[in-house]
Amino acid sequence: MKSEKSHHIFLFEPLNDSPISVLWDLVLAFYVVRLAALYSLLTLSSHLLLSHLAPSTTTTTAITTLLAAALWTRYVMQRWQVPPAVGFRGAVGLLAGGMIWVVEEVLWGVGLIVKWEIDIYPDLMLDDLSYGVAEKDRKGKT
């Protein structure tokens, strides 16, 4: 009798023993969470450090944060010899991105960081957006 094939994506060859397979999945999950936590800690700390040491434009901060994130990604992947499987590295990246998002939302809620604000139309008032009339046009008519 043939055994049924599992529809799960495995990083390594699945084991036949069920308890061993479950333990192996738990070890891999712990490994992914640990790498994601380390990566998010390194990226977030470098972002906070760079934004407070050299306060400048939003663009400069975004570029240095992206550069630091790329360097930390390379370091984490090389240091802990993460296999080049897209699913594995993608899981680490998505989990780390989620962790960074949660931490930034908490820090923003507490008031320790300020979210990036880009004012595309500085001459428009918030009330004027609902009427579609610019402030300078209203001043010119009155």
UniProtKB/TrEMBL annotation:
Keywords: Membrane, Transmembrane, Transmembrane helix
Transmembrane segments annotated in the record for this chain: 21-41, 53-73, 85-103
The UniProt record lists the keyword Membrane: yes
Top-rank lineage group of the source organism: Eukaryota
Protein name: Uncharacterized protein
